[in-house]
Amino acid sequence: MVKHGLDPGQQRTPEYLSARDIHNRKQALGRVASIASSKLDQLFALVGNSGCGLVLTDNQGVVVDHRFKDADMETFHDWGLDGGADWSESAQGTNGIGTCLTERREVVIHRDQHFMANNIAMSCIGAPVYGAEGEIVAALDVSSARVDQTEAMNGMISELVRQAARGIEADNFQAVFSGARVLVVNEPGDSVALLAANADDIVIGATRAARRALDLQHEGTLKPVPLSDLTGGDKTSKGFERGQHAAVMRALVRADRNVSLAARELGVSRATLYRRMKRLGITG
Length: 284
Fold this sequence. Notes:
284 residues, alpha+beta, Beta-Lactamase, Arc Repressor Mutant, subunit A, 5-stranded antiparallel β-sheet, elongated
């Protein structure tokens, strides 16, 4: 932590941003903050009774939302985990929030693994939350100062934190691409690997896990790509003909095999549709 100029033995009084700053940061999170709220409630219902506190930060490590038992509120405030606290690595050194944001992965920082001496009583379990364009938008953290909190218990809580973070990602992605068809990428493991495709089967969005699995750009607005290019479908004229075949068959099924009605739906003449059906090997 030399690069941050921190002294691990320094006793620091927690500093908090103003209510206005907290509000602005939460507003900047937009839909993610709203979606995360219900996930925080669900996770807190599982871990809150064991003396754990739960916080959501923005991508700078500043706490914008939290869940504490009333009896624990003062304790967590004194530890610097209340709204507006800065838990970036530059402010606190190694910790569950700042380190998961820096290393872009789930982490468990158990007691004396913290950099600052005044944090070593805690166990902190953090996970980054990725946005719809593959960028880190937030971090989720569960902290506890129970003396009987074991590393095995931390491991179980870590899985709950990871699931909650991925749940926020999935719900946010589906909300962003609510007008698209969302598909699950068959990736080993249980990451949230989702694609969003429009009506023309052009992929217009992908979660971070899907981008990694399919070797797409890691972050930013996704360059549109045909779904078949990613799924190994036929990219030749045969693939185009299969698309036409499917479109004609859908029209015929909707028209109960009435060629005139199907032609009207497709916007072509009855004769044109017959010629196309012959070329595609579709019998009337």
